[in-house]
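My current task is to audit a protein record that another person submitted. Alongside the sequence sits a line of tokens, each denoting a local backbone shape. Please read both lines and tell me whether the tokens look consistent with the sequence. Do not assume that whoever made the record got everything right. Thanks in advance; the entry in question is below.
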Amino acid sequence: MDQPVSNELKQSRMKEFVQLLPLTLELAGLPKADSGRLFTADQIEARVMSIRTAYRAAHALVREVGETALKENR
């Protein structure tokens, strides 16, 4: 059975997400909506999937950079 996630861990994950958001959005490469134009539910879901994929890539990149830096300092 899954253990409940602590508030501290939730806050840490949210902070990491917010810190990676600029890189994530850049990697996702999504165009901004035209003024007055609304996205459909399907378009929003597609954009969410793109952002999720980009976040995973950004997270992996930061982890890789951190691990590489540790190896180089040894």
